[in-house]
Amino acid sequence: MYKSFDKVVVLEKQFRQSGDSEEQDAFRSFLDRLKRRECTTGDLEYTRARIKARLSPPELKLFENAIHIYPYRRMVWSHNRYVLQDCCFDP
Fold first, then answer.
1. pLDDT above 70 (res 16)
2. Helix, coil or strand: residue 83
3. Is residue 52 a contact partner of residue 70, using CB atoms and an 8 Å limit?
4. Would 34 be classed as within a structural domain?
5. Do the domain assignments include residue 43?
6. For residue 40, is it within any domain?
7. How many domains does the chain have?
8. 46: how many CB neighbours lie within 10 A of its CB?
9. What is the rounded radius of gyration, in angstroms, for the C-alpha atoms of the chain?
10. What is the crossing angle of helices 41-48 and 22-35, to 10°?
11. Alpha helices for 1-91 (secondary structure H)
12. Segment 36-72, tens digit of pLDDT
């Protein structure tokens, strides 16, 4: 099927993470550096501050519907399966 595509579009801007706040702008910049493999020490600290095991229960609740960044696809699949089972197959 992919051979039937005759055009490629490369987006220059992050569209899923929109908003005008300083925090949202910083997050977009972080994602851009992550994509280009140009992370800074500040980016590392930013991600370490959001490690699930380091968050308090009230903070965890705030991130309940947040995006998750995983280093391996199998971890993404596992998380997606968990979320789908939780939301779609809850008796």
1. no
2. helix
3. no
4. yes
5. yes
6. yes
7. 1
8. 14
9. 17
10. 110
11. 22-35, 41-48, 57-62, 73-88
12. 899 999 999 988 888 888 889 998 898 888 878 888 8
Q: Check: CB of residue 34 under 8 Å from CB of residue 47.
A: no
Residue 91 has pLDDT above 70, yes or no: no
pLDDT of residue 43: 94
Contacts of 25 (CB under 8 A, 6+ apart): 19
User: Which residue, among 55, 44, 52, has the nearest Cα to 75 in the 3D structure?
Assistant: 52
pTM for the complete prediction? 0.50
Q: Tell me which residue has tokens 């391996």.
A: 72
Q: Are 18 and 35 in contact (CB under 8 A)?
A: no
Structural domain for 20, as ranges: 10-49
Q: Are 31 and 39 a contacting pair, CB within 8 Å?
A: no
Name residue 32's amino acid: D
In a domain, 76, yes or no: no
